[in-house]
Write a structure and sequence with these properties.
The protein has a single domain, classed as Protein of unknown function UPF0759 (TIM Barrel). It has a 9-stranded parallel β-sheet. The protein is built from 10 helices and 9 strands. Strand 2, helix 2 and strand 3 form a beta-alpha-beta unit. It is of the alpha/beta class. It comes from Nonomuraea phyllanthi. This is DUF72 domain-containing protein. Pfam families: DUF72. InterPro entries: DUF72, UPF0759_sf.
Length: 283
């Protein structure tokens, strides 16, 4: 029984000295992060396909059981909207191939304008993806959350290829007005859709956005502790990604979420032991 938890990135300006050692070289940062969390969102691949050598470095720094949920490039999902993408997709899949079993899922994040009328395009695209990968789809069009027919049609498309629906739960974040610059920035950018807790596959993936205040973040994730506990009891293997607007405390919060679930399920496999953080010395 295993719950994977992680963050939106593996390096952050406010983590050294708190969660990871100071002055780590770039080639060691993912390795250090992997002693805190056992999953990470592959958001950087949305903006540019990495070189194969870069991905080989990612693989060297992580154990085979580490989970990358790798976002497809925006040229595929947002610019070409899943059509005429063969060359871009081929280059992307070749680049990430060194991850091997660490590539937990290909993450198809779709723009808010991608609605029920586009489901035929999504179905055709998913059928073309190689079956050696799992697929996870994130939609942001409100019709999929508010119209039962649209929800069921999307679920049917995903079920045909055993793909998961990735919820991005921002309900706790939008409960109160922003109080910091980071929260104000997220307020303008993050999607406002209802919370969805229905898993379609044995490997559900959750993205949760809390607040910069720890207490509000913890209060907001309480329904997910219940849901994730139920999934584990059903024999599912979930992945939970913890976001806050500034992400300054994200690794610690991700581990705290894992602790909250493990308090319900003591048989749950523990997270890795964090790498010791030794203070800097003059000699």
């Amino acid at each position: 029984m295993r719950l994977h938890v992680g963050c939106a990135m593996w390096t952050h300006a406010r983590w050294p000295g708190r969660f990871v050692p100071e002055q780590l070289p770039p080639g060691e940062r993912l390795r250090s992060y992997a002693t805190l969390c056992d999953a990470v969102e592959g958001n950087t691949t949305f903006y540019a396909t990495p070189t194969r050598s870069t991905v080989e470095s990612w693989a060297r720094q992580t154990a085979p059981g580490f989970r990358f949920v790798v976002k497809l490039p925006k040229a595929v999902t947002h610019e070409r909207r899943l059509t005429g993408t063969e060359e871009d997709l081929r280059s992307f899949l070749d680049a990430i191939e060194p991850l091997g079993p660490r590539c937990h899922a290909l993450w198809v994040q779709l723009p808010g304008s991608f609605g029920p009328g586009d489901l035929g395009v999504l179905a055709a695209f998913l059928r073309r993806l190689p079956r050696s990968y799992r697929f996870a789809v994130e939609v942001r069009h409100r019709a999929f959350f508010e119209e039962e027919r649209s929800e069921r049609l999307l679920e049917r498309v995903l079920a045909a290829v055993d793909a998961e629906w990735v919820p991005f739960d921002t309900t706790a974040f939008f409960r109160e007005r922003p109080t910091s610059d980071a929260e104000r920035d997220a307020w303008a950018k993050k999607p406002r859709v209802p919370r969805r807790t229905r898993a379609l596959t044995a490997h559900p993936i959750v993205r949760y956005l809390g607040r910069d205040a720890e207490a509000a973040t913890v209060e907001g994730w309480r329904p997910w502790v219940d849901t994730v506990t139920d999934w584990l009891r059903e024999g599912r293997s979930p992945t939970f990604f913890l976001h806050t607007p500034d992400n300054a405390d994200a690794p610690g919060l991700a581990r705290a979420f894992h602790d909250a679930v493990r308090a319900r399920l003591p048989a749950l496999a523990p997270l890795p032991e964090p790498e010791p953080i030794t203070p800097m010395t003059l000699f």
